[in-house]
Design brief:
single chain, 610 residues, alpha+beta, Alkaline Phosphatase, subunit A, Arylsulfatase, C-terminal domain, Jelly Rolls, ten-stranded mixed beta sheet, six-stranded mixed beta sheet
Length: 610
């Protein structure tokens, strides 16, 4: 419905312009924008970076036909990078403090790059891993994207025929997830070839679990890995092989996008960007840089970045000045002549003087990297690490020689800059340094934003296990909340709670995605909220096997093996507007266990009269 309404509006607008004498041929043509984002791909995971273990000709072609930002810095983990790209602001300003349990959400008063382009009349679509909020109005459809296909969580545990969503409705993907996401991005480009569009394609590969189509794995499973990470024995060679196979799959999908732009004769008027969200998650070759995903050293936050805009950006442009994900919003809005939506101060800078080779005095700057209270800062020449050690990144890119004693004035300047940034930018729990409120943060209590429920424009609200808190004997299927489910539900003292705020008073259909051994079917469960209760029965039994044949190599410890969860209708519950704990518990357990549960879904059916 949203897409139909948007297209109808565009047709009416075009008709009005034509009737008023508007001459389309005389108007400047605004560029399309395609942003492709890899997940956990390190700077060294491409052949253009010098890695001879693999071949990535399509991604490499973006460098040769466009520009390379040689020192592009993102965050050390996924959700913060996405927030910085979307807003042009450091992630913590927008409430993004982590990657799960609600801390990945982008504050609702932040405006995104998609908001700006949509307001300018662009068609906007996102296809892949969102990772900045699942419930409306955190959902991508509420953040400027007309079309959304993918999953809103961070980590996803199924890479073949995965459960996904399309504009909030559950769907089943077809084939390997990166191929499927690309299919939908290509369809969007085709559908909007006559109007300016923004197509955001955030892959979730080569992030674990390590799975790739067989044709790609066959290229690598016996292949010698000749370029190794400097950590030596810590590198798991089969993990490296699978990651590189996944990178070659990404490259093939990038090639499909570029080919479709050529076929539609859109290439000359389309800005194409390719980058990654953080450094490599495993030990492997990364140009000798120190650190990997989760660290604020160079290897954790420096990623590949290429941008192509034929006729505007000269082929083979190589920008050595430092830049960041925070710079992408101001750069792209400048290029497209689009007015930014929102008035919060930007941390990023428009990079057009560097990319368009305009003569300018580009000043030195500082780019800050933060992860869980740990901060480093990068200038054009130096990096001050989280411990206060100073490195000359030109002479010592591997961060091996601490110069803080030899250059005390520079070290003091950067220490002061970090202290000022910490005080101005970080939330209270990080204001005095790492470790403060650690126990509180681990319990999920430091984020006081409830999960919103009940918007008429987006009636279905998912409440996954990731966002719930287990009590009693219930535990998660794995230590990582993302893509987990609740298991070990055995007593009437056990419960699961979600801190929610109901936006609309009304009647809601309640549904649970569950599995249950046939012999254990029959437990009675109660869903309650602020005095209102709904009773349902866990039946029939449904006990599918785990998906043990999806992984190319065994998935890391802490990540769940997944299975097929089916919806269990509970009935209708009346919810009054307001905040409270939504509680799910068992009132009768006739057998050994209640069920395993992946998600509770509430759908607004009828709103109370105002």
């Amino acid at each position: 419905m949203r897409t139909l309404a948007t297209n109808s509006f565009r047709l009416l607008l075009l008709l009005a312009l034509l009737l008023s004498g508007y001459n389309a041929s005389s108007a400047p043509t605004r560029p399309n924008v395609v942003i492709i984002l890899a997940d956990d791909q390190g700077w060294g995971d491409l052949s253009v970076s010098g890695n001879t273990n693999l071949k990535t000709p399509n991604i490499d072609s973006l460098a040769s036909s466009g520009a390379t930002l040689d020192r592009l810095y993102v965050c050390s983990v996924c959700a913060p990078t996405r927030a910085e790209f979307l807003t042009g602001r450091y992630h913590s300003r927008g409430g993004v403090r982590g990657v799960s349990s609600g801390q990945e959400r982008l504050n609702l008063d932040e405006k995104t790059i998609a908001d700006a382009f949509k307001a300018a009349g662009y068609a906007t679509g996102a296809f892949g891993k969102w990772h900045n909020g699942s419930q409306w109005p955190y959902h991508p459809n509420a953040r400027g994207f007309d079309e959304y296909y993918g999953f809103t969580s961070g980590h996803w545990g199924e890479y073949f025929n995965p459960p996904l969503e399309h504009n909030g409705k559950p769907v089943r993907g077809k084939g390997f997830i990166a191929d499927d996401l690309t299919d939908h991005a290509l369809a969007f480009i085709e559908q909007n070839k006559a109007v300016p569009f923004v197509c955001y394609l955030p892959f979730n590969t080569p992030h674990s679990p390590f799975a790739v189509p067989e044709e790609y794995w066959n290229r690598f499973k016996q292949k010698p890995i000749t370029m190794r990470g400097k950590e030596g024995e810590n590198e798991e060679v089969d993990v490296t092989r699978c990651v590189l196979a996944m990178c070659e799959n990404i490259d093939a999908n990038v090639g499909r996008v570029l080919q479709r732009l050529d076929q539609l004769k859109l290439s000359d008027n389309t800005i194409v960007i390719y980058f990654s969200d953080n450094g490599p998650a495993s030990y492997r070759w990364n140009g000798g840089m120190k650190g990997r995903k989760g660290t604020v050293d160079e290897g954790g936050v420096r990623v590949p970045f290429f941008i192509r805009w034929p006729g505007k950006i000269k082929s083979g442009t190589h920008v050595r000045e430092i830049a960041g994900a925070i710079d992408l919003l101001p750069t792209l809005t400048q290029f497209a002549g689009v007015t930014r939506v929102g008035d919060k101060p930007l941390d990023g800078k428009g990079l057009s003087p560097l990319l368009l080779s305009v003569k300018s005095n580009w000043p030195d700057r500082m780019i800050f990297s933060h992860q869980n209270g740990r901060i480093s800062v990068r200038t054009q020449q130096y990096r001050l690490d989280e411990a206060g050690a100073l490195f000359d990144m030109t002479a010592d890119p591997g961060q091996t020689h601490d110069l803080s004693s030899a250059k005390p004035d520079m070290a003091a300047t950067l220490v002061k800059a970090v202290a000022t940034w910490r005080q101005e930018v970080l939330p209270t729990e990080h204001a005095t340094g790492p470790g403060k409120n650690k126990a509180k943060k681990q319990k999920g209590e430091s984020d006081d934003r409830p999960y919103p429920v009940g918007y008429a424009e987006f009636p279905m609200t998912p409440l996954p296990a990731r966002d719930g808190i287990p009590h009693g004997t219930i535990k998660r299927s794995a230590s990582a909340p993302n893509s987990s489910y609740f298991v070990n539900w055995k007593t009437t003292d056990d419960s699961i709670t979600w801190d929610v705020v109901v936006h609309t008073t009304g009647n809601y259909k309640a549904e649970i995605y569950y599995t249950c051994p046939e012999a254990d079917a029959g437990s009675k469960i109660e869903l309650g909220f602020n005095g209102t209760k709904l009773i349902g029965t866990v039946t029939p039994g449904w006990n599918p096997p785990l998906y043990t044949n999806q992984d190319t190599i065994p998935r890391p410890a802490g990540e769940s093996q997944m299975k097929e969860f089916r919806p269990l209708p509970l009935g209708t519950i009346h919810l009054e507007k307001g905040r409270g704990l939504l509680t799910l518990r068992a009132v009768e357990i006739p057998h050994a266990s209640v069920m395993d549960m992946r998600q509770l879904t509430l759908t607004l059916e009828t709103a109370a009269p105002k």
